[in-house]
Amino acid sequence: MKGYLFLALSIVSEVIATMMLKFSEAFTILGPSIAVAVGYGISFYSLSLCLKTLPLSLAYAIWSGIGTALTVIVGIVVWGDIFNFYSAIGITLIIGGVILLNQGDHHNATT
Q: What is the pLDDT of residues 24-34, one digit of tens each?
């Protein structure tokens, strides 16, 4: 359980850092630029802590998949990025893949 909490912190801080990357305007605005460095630092440190208890393949798949899906959602909500049928299918496939990986991990643990 602790590993999943560190993984969640890693995902949230990575998404925030990515948002700040956009706000930093190519690192020309100081505040968001500092937030990028801090956010990615927290993200990678938290990811390393979660790897003490979670398999790398599972943790990285969840981290990258959910992080990507959340970043797409933030882009749509905050910056008005286009959301269409293909976006919906893409996010659904990402989340579905993460669910399948997670189920496969639990299945192997019980056999």
A: 999 999 999 99
Q: Which two tokens stand for residue 47?
A: 């990811």
Eight-class DSSP state of 52 = T
Structure tokens at 25: 């305007």
State how far the alpha carbon of 15 is from the alpha carbons of 65, 76, 104, 107, in Å.
12, 13, 26, 30
Record the pTM.
Answer: 0.84
> What are the structure tokens assigned to 78, written together?
């905050």
Chain length of the chain: 111
CA-nearest of 77, 101, 102, 98 to 87 is: 77
The CA distance from 44 to 49, in Å, is 9
